[in-house]
Design goal:
Shape of chain A: elongated
CATH superfamily of the largest domain in chain B: Cytochrome-c3 Hydrogenase, chain B
Largest interface: A-B, 28 and 32 residues
Strand order of the largest sheet of chain B: 1-2-3
Number of helices of chain A: 5
Strand content of chain A: 5-15%
Oligomer: heterodimer
Largest sheet of chain B: 3 strands, antiparallel
CATH architecture of the largest domain in chain B: Orthogonal Bundle
CATH class of the largest domain in chain B: Mainly Alpha
Distance between the termini of chain A: 72 Å
Order of helices and strands of chain A: HEHEEHEEHH
Shape of chain B: globular
Number of domains of chain B: 2
Helix content of chain B: 40-55%
CATH topology of the largest domain in chain B: Cytochrome-c3 Hydrogenase, chain B
Helix content of chain A: 25-40%
Number of helices of chain B: 16
Largest sheet of chain A: 3 strands, antiparallel
Strand order of the largest sheet of chain A: 2-3-5
């Protein structure tokens, strides 16, 4: 008698589980289908993407980097190379191997002039190792060309804002196969 | 040919093949099993790529029919020299490694190493940093238990619950990303504080999360815990009493399921845990079901701590004024710091001779001790039950191998 009762209770528990599964089957989707939709900018505001050089306060087209090599020494993965230029303290070469980077933030915290920051590139894709060797000075030039003047006080926030705008555009063009392979969807 | 070779480990296995041609195949580890032809017994390699071994754990089992006669876990497939790496990097540079030792519960490892360094250097941690540490550690404990919950049910044949668990995990990841900047291998702690201060959004999301998670736990109970198939797979399987736990040094939920109040947060208090009111759940039974229930209870207790924490947030800086820089040298001496991770007692022992890098770093991984129980507990069980026991241990192989 006890065994029969146990089995009836067991069958009921299976029905309860089935009911939950069916409710979830017809509930709205929680995942974001990446190429057609991207996550909200708010969600990646503090995200640590690959490093980028910030813009100087006096001259927004130049980096405040003084080639002091402190970030090179602090880095646990030895992924930073900074070569000092001939004129002044500005670097002539600033490369960064993202494949070795563990995004620990030692360089960002050591930098005496605040020349380094984490970008918020969530959708970065590379097809080979060479593509992960990033030239940050060229990247800075690209950003300067895009918007010569600084928009807000700090760089990271202005970037997040401008990217948010382009993202909403990308959302509007959902499904359009205009994006190249290996390029993040945010650039306008 | 029947000579037993139980205790003798011969690295040159190929020599043995010549001894007994045609009857012996295997490698270094199969040498621990009896050689030669067998009547009904089969030696089976479970792993290193078996999905129920969670990563790259290899378990050699000798089967008679479906019964496990002997089993032997083989480690080392994910050995990454974590301890050696601590000897070649400065403490500050070694810190991001701690998130990689146990990728499911990095905050506890962060805390163990940062705590050991702070104890050796005599650094005071500000109140706000302690608060952030407790909150992030409890959030991380919940997310670790959630992934275990999904993976454990998947081991037993229920594939969908892990997707429910991931929904909550994503919410926790969103919360932790605000302060840590990453979603998996958090590198949040610094010597003398934490990396980043919390903002209002962090607190708001936690306030939303706590009642949401409680609702979901009710759903978990109805969906999985009360499921008759699930219960019959777990009840009475793999009993691990206090005796076997003590012999192998098991800690965490396994020890607590055996009825022992063993929690580092109470036994060796650290941080500001003494301010919060929470219970240490000890299991009703010492079988797989007991370990399952203890972990679900722990999620509830962590939610209680979070609820109390967001009520009263201390002010002040999140890191000490003169925090150590990357080139920071440890003073000569020794220190040991232990915290409660999701899997048990996590500890870090640093020996420094005053040089640029520490002389030796020893990491105590709870998973290693918990895994060593397995051979004894799985003896004489069915193979499917052995998988349940393995799942109930909550193994993370990078942590076991270090």
């Amino acid at each position: 008698m006890r065994a029969i009762w146990d089995n009836i209770k067991g069958l009921y528990s299976l029905l309860v589980g089935m009911k939950i599964t069916i409710v979830f089957l017809f509930s709205p989707r929680k995942t974001v289908h990446y190429p057609r939709k991207v996550v909200e900018r708010e969600n990646v505001e503090n995200y640590r993407g690959p490093l980028e050089l910030t813009r100087g306060k006096k001259d927004p087209a130049k980096t405040p980097c003084i080639s002091c090599q402190l970030c090179v020494k602090a880095c646990p993965g030895n992924c930073i190379t900074v070569v000092k230029g001939k004129e002044g303290k500005a670097p002539s070469l600033w490369t960064y191997d993202f494949s070795y980077c563990c995004l620990c933030g030692a360089c960002v915290e050591t930098c005496p002039t605040g020349a380094l920051a984490f970008s918020h590139r969530v959708y970065m894709v590379a097809k080979s190792r060479e593509e992960l060797l990033l030239d940050l000075l060229a990247d800075l030039d690209d950003r300067v060309k895009k918007s010569p003047q600084l928009e807000a006080k700090t760089d990271a926030k202005s970037d997040a804002k401008s990217e948010a705008k382009t993202d909403s555009k990308a959302d509007a063009k959902a499904g359009a196969p205009a994006k190249k392979d290996g390029e993040e969807p945010s650039p306008a | 040919m029947a000579s037993s070779n139980f205790n003798f480990i011969n690295p040159f296995t190929f020599l043995n093949v010549q001894d007994s041609p045609g009857t012996y195949v295997g490698d270094f580890y199969t040498d621990n099993f009896e050689k030669g032809a067998r009547a009904g017994n089969v030696i089976l390699n479970l792993g290193p790529q078996h999905p129920s071994t969670h990563g790259v754990l290899r378990v050699l089992v000798e089967l008679f029919g479906e019964y496990v006669l002997r089993s032997e876990p083989v480690l080392g497939y994910l050995h990454r020299m974590q301890e050696k790496m601590g000897e070649v990097k400065t403490p500050y540079q070694y810190l991001p490694n701690m998130g990689r030792v146990d990728y499911l519960n990095p905050i506890a490892w962060n805390w163990a190493f940062a705590g050991a360094v702070e104890r050796l250097a005599g650094l005071e941690v500000p109140e706000k940093a302690e608060w952030l540490r407790v909150v992030s550690a409890e959030l991380n404990r919940i997310s670790s238990h959630l992934l275990w919950w999904g993976a454990f049910v998947m081991d037993l044949g229920g594939v969908t619950p892990i997707l429910y668990a991931f929904e909550e995990r994503e919410k926790i990841n969103d919360i932790l990303q605000i302060v840590t900047g990453s979603r998996l291998t958090y590198n949040y702690f610094r010597f003398g504080g934490v990396g980043q201060d919390a903002d209002g959004r962090f607190v708001d999301l936690i306030k939303d999360f706590v009642p949401y998670m409680r609702e979901r736990l009710k759903m978990y109970k109805a969906l999985v815990t009360e499921n008759i198939i699930f219960r019959r797979r777990l009840e009475g399987i793999g009993p691990m009493g206090e005796d076997i736990c003590r012999r192998y040094g098991a800690t965490g939920p396994i020890m607590r399921a055996a009825g022992v109040m063993c929690d580092t947060r109470r036994l060796y208090p650290y941080g500001i845990y003494d301010r919060f009111d929470y219970d240490i759940p000890t299991g009703p039974t010492d079988d797989c079901m007991g370990r399952y229930l203890v972990r679900l209870e722990e999620i509830k207790e962590s939610l209680r701590i979070l609820e109390q924490a967001v009520r009263d947030i201390p002010g002040g800086p999140h890191i000490v004024a003169k925090a150590p820089k990357p080139a920071y040298k440890l003073p000569a001496g020794e220190s040991y710091f232990t915290v409660e991770g999701a899997r048990g007692q996590v500890a870090c022992h640093i020996i420094s001779d005053g040089g640029k890098t520490p002389y030796r770093i020893k990491l105590r991984a709870p998973g290693f001790s918990n895994l060593s129980l397995f051979a004894e507990a799985a003896k004489g069980t069915l193979l499917a039950d052995a998988i349940a026991i393995l799942g109930s241990l909550d193994l993370v192989i990078p942590e076991v191998d270090r």
